[in-house]
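Last lecture ended with a question: if I hand you only a sequence, what can you say about the shape of the protein? Today we answer it with a concrete record. The protein is YncE family protein. Below, first the input exactly as provided, then the predicted structure, then a couple of comments.
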Amino acid sequence: MAAVAAAVVALAGCSGGGGTAAPPPAPTGPAATSPVPAPAAAVDGLPGMPPVTDAHDVYANAAANMLSDAAKAAKPLVYVPHTKSGEVRVIDPATFAVVGTYPLGGELQHVVPSWDMRTLYATDDTTNKVVPFDPVTGKPGAVIPVQDPYNMYFTPDGASAISVAEAQRRLVFYDPHTWAQQGELPTPDCAGIDHADFTPDGRTAVFTCEFDGRVAVVDIVHRTLLRTIDMPRRNRHMGPQDIKLAPDGSVFYIADSDQNGLWVLDGAATHVVREIPTGHGAHGLYLSRDATRLYVTNRHEGSVSVLDAYTGASITKWRLPGGGSPDMGNVSADGSQLWLSGRYDRAVYVLSTTDGSLIRKIDVGDGPHGLCVWPQPGRYSLGHTGITR
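The predicted structure:
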């Protein structure tokens, strides 16, 4: 894989309910009837991880409307956690109306889909809890104690939930069925550990260190820290933020708010290849449903940069009318809309993925953050606001 990644980069011009660990049923839907592409290369995946069916596009099974049976059972809703008002507001995407407000207390950061897509978790890193939501009803359940869950991910085999304990500089592993703690991995040299993504084989994860200007590379199998990699410029105020694997696994894109753009890390997670300027306050990274475009939210200038997901080449930039603070969110199941929280503007933005036009601005509470659009296509979830493959 490292050799393949290097070749692709060169060609680009240097560029719980958590469920069981068994692979869920194959997605069905209009897009699922087309033939599965032949693998571009063999991928020795993490045991228990659903196999990579197309090494040229690890997101091939998360295309438009390719919903698993669990996702099909969900009520289409958008979940908006708030860091300031301590609530989750639920929006009906058909009417754009707020249909539920749930005061949960604390500082709610992200709404995270479980590996098996049967539960959504609102994470709260100030009172050490996650609150499960049933996506069939859209209602919250009983509080689950979890250490400092600023963000949360699931190992690609579904065997562990990972609390990204930002304030404690560590990763805490939990059994996603019982929420018993399995172990932890200290990351003392990764201040502000917060976002992550995984290599195509699921064996390695890269976590960003917002307040240290670097990333931490983690061996998922052995739960060990392999190395830290400094960015060419170590921004420590609002440095490395969200991270996204290119569809072919050739590189990782790393948003850096202070740098106003992306760092490009090689697919083997050994060194930074180059930099891509996008806009003031680059923060969130999301893929189009066909995985050909990468959307970059520029939080401090009220814009979204659209890049080629394979090469990182700039395609266009969409600007919100009157500005705003587009932060985190996701693309709708059919790929037609990009939903984003307005972190500093008590708003949610709904953009057309055709031309970037603003479809609707929805008033919400104070400090909307890791917005989750549900359901999402795919066979399983890696967490965050809906990284599915």
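Comments.
1. Residues 2-11 form the longest helix (10 residues).
2. The chain has two helices and 29 strands.
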